[in-house]
Amino acid sequence: MHQDSGQALWSTPTANGIESSPAVTGEAVLIGSEDFCLYALEAATGKIRWKYATGLGISSSPAVGGETVFAGSKDGFLYAIDIPTGRLNWKVRLAEVITASPVAGGSVVCIQCFGGGVHTLDAATGRELWHARLGSSIHSCPVLTGDAVYLADEQGMIYALG
Q1: Domains of the chain (ranges plus CATH)?
Q2: Which of 40, 60, 100, 131 is such that its CA lies 20 to 30 A from the CA of 113?
């Protein structure tokens, strides 16, 4: 939408619904769909640059770290995709289902998984740096600052992990 007028600049359909927000970096709009695909669109035109198929739908918003987009899928994998090419850098199975959005910062990516697990991974390799099991499910996106991860669970508990 145009900021001043609200007129549509372009629209691009996917094969199913979208439950997440896009990430925008440089000239790319990145978004997951319930059609099992992560899309990279040209920001100026909406033309599909590439799409990457996962095993199930994507309801979480993607996160960008450098030239990599990270997306969690309902198939339980966290995917790291090269933004310019659409090629898979790595994928790691972390849970039965991933619906929360990852967050990327510096050399790490952090994501919560269904059932209360929080994982912090090396953004370049996908190697798990640490995992914390919390008492309740976490549906929100964690926040990374310096050496801590902040998040809250559905029971009202706020955590700082490091």
Answers
A1: 63-161 (2.40.128.630)
A2: 40
Question: Got the DSSP string for 84-107?
Answer: TT--EEEEEE-SS---SPPEEETT
The HSE-up count of residue 16 (CA atoms within 13 Å, CB side) is 14
Question: Residue 29, Cα to own-chain centre: how many angstroms?
Answer: 13
Strands of the sheet containing 68-72, edge to edge, are 63-65, 68-72, 77-82, 88-93
Q: Which of helix, strand or coil describes residue 123? A: coil
Model pTM? 0.92
Q: How much is the pLDDT for 35?
A: 97
What is the spatial distance between Cα 111 and Cα 49, in angstroms, rounded to a whole number? Answer: 26
Question: For 69-113, what is each residue's pLDDT tens digit?
Answer: 999 999 999 999 999 999 999 999 998 888 889 999 989 999 988
Pair 113, 77: CB distance under 8 Å: no
> What pLDDT shows up at residue 96?
81
Give per-residue burial for 92-117: e unless 16+ CB within 10 Å, then b.
bebbebbbbbbbbbeebbbbbbbebb
Instruction: Let me know: does 75 contact 92? Beta carbons within 8 Å.
Output: no
